[in-house]
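Running low. Got one?
___
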Amino acid sequence: MTAERQVRFWFFGLLTFLVLVFFLSSVLLPFVAGMAIAYLLDPVCDRLEAMGASRTLATSIVTLVFIIIVLLVIVLLVPLIVGQAARLLENLPGYFEFLRTKLSSLLTVIEMRVDDQMLEKFRSAVLGSADNVITWLSKAIVGVLSGGVAVVNVLSLLVITPVVTFYLLRDWDRIVEHLNGWLPRDHAPVIRDLTLQVDKTLSGFLRGQGMVCLTLGVFYALGLSIAGLDFGLIVGMIAGILSIVPYVGSIVGLALSVGLALVQFDSFTGVAIVAAVFFAGQILEGYVLTPNLVGDKVGLHPVWLIFGLLAGGTLFGFVGVMLAVPVAAVIGVGVRFGLGQYLASHYYRGSARDVEMDAAEQTSVVDEKIES
């Protein structure tokens, strides 16, 4: 098969995959979730196997423990989250009215020093923007709630996902062996090497950054609750989830918590305590969690990750968000490989220096170029 026919074959294969994901995205969620869980839990099953357990027994134990943990989280946390979310929705109009009052007071102070015509334009713009924000947030919240119920089929997640997880975990090694046997013989070594790089990047990010998100979510939720902030649990969970992208969770959580604290507390002492929780969380993330759990060799830049998450969510909804990180890892490894091939070719080095470079030299050159 010529290079042109190979490119055509893989292009149409990728196009077919994207079309299927687009049209089946509404039913793929439990399967994608089951695949992700199986991927994350496979090392645990491998360790149990190394201790003498059969693959089926190891899979049964790991799946059962995972289900128990999820059920405990649902039973203990979901009622608290739902209660706080309901109270937050009830209090939102009051919070916006408080902000409107503060803005009106600010306008009263400004009107003594500003021209009346300019002041009227400013007043109309500010108050009109406040009304638009309230309307937009109301529609967004209703859309998320109604859309979430439609897209995320809770029954399928609770019933189908554990079944998919169990069977994928049990047959994981055989699936990998079969896929390895289907690789094109001429390019199998290169594909295996690239797959190992993707696995290293993906596992390091998902397991490491997942632990960072979980730890920060618990830290923020407990810290804000102890500080006396209403809805501290929800804000802490939002900050923890958004910490999948470094620093984004802390920034969003800080803005939300300080905004709620300004409305709730009469003095700035409470606001300062709430802000201190997030500064402490930032120190914990930057100096303890990320260096020890994630490290500096994951290979997923925050900007590239944000783009992948937004693009995946826009194209394929929640399924696209779940697929964004693996796809970003694959593309990142592919780009580095392509860059290495380019740096080793005569297109970069010129015909006079058209000499073969080994894999270690290519990697070194790519790393130096990327770092610079």
Notes: The chain has a mean pLDDT of 79. The CA atoms of residues 38 and 244 lie 19 Å apart. The chain has three domains: 23-182, 207-295, 299-372.
